[in-house]
Amino acid sequence: MRISFILTAMLALTVFSSCSKDNDVRTSGECFADKITFTQTKVQTGNDDLIITFDAKNTSAKEYNIQNGAKVVNLKIVVTTTDGSNYETNTVFTETKLSAGSTVSTLAVASFGAGKTYASYKLTTSCD
Q1: Residues in contact with 94: Cβ distance below 8 Å, sequence separation at least 6, in sequence order
Q2: In whole angstroms, what is the distance from residue 112 CA to residue 121 CA?
Q3: Scanning 17, 36, 87, 112, which has its CA 20 to 30 A from the CA of 44?
């Protein structure tokens, strides 16, 4: 009886110790909209489009990974033209995985009215 108890205890210990803590760091349903910072590195205008290059940095201690359940980060870009008109473009952060503390270069494209001249833009982030 003692031997079966010891064997059962050893089996349980083996099973529980084989579970890694890293697997517990799931991001299921987590929104990284305020944990990924976007720093503009370049702005180009072409025809009626604004092409913005950003350094996107994951400031979280967790990996951003939509395959592990992290919510997609939405980008809302409002372009203002010299005549005061505003044009809104909604897109997504195209990276699907970004390690904690890492930075990646990424592009976002926003459109504005034909014949208008670009003045400025504002970027806001969110999750659904």
Answers
A1: 106, 107
A2: 10
A3: 36
Q: Letter for the amino acid at 31?
A: C
Domains (ranges, CATH) in the chain?
28-127 (2.60.40.1620)
Task: Say which residues have a Cβ less than 8 Å from residue 9's Cβ, sequence separation at least 6.
Answer: none
Print burial letters for 111-126: b (CB count within 10 Å at least 16), e (below 16).
Answer: ebeeeeebeebeeebe
Q: What angle do CA 67, 69, 74 make, to 5 degrees?
A: 90
Amino acid at site 88: E
Considering the entire predicted model, what is its pTM? Answer: 0.78
Distance CA(73)–CA(79), nearest Å, equals 19
Instruction: Say what the alpha-carbon torsion angle 78, 80, 81, 82 is, to the nearest 10 degrees.
Output: -170
pLDDT of residue 26: 57
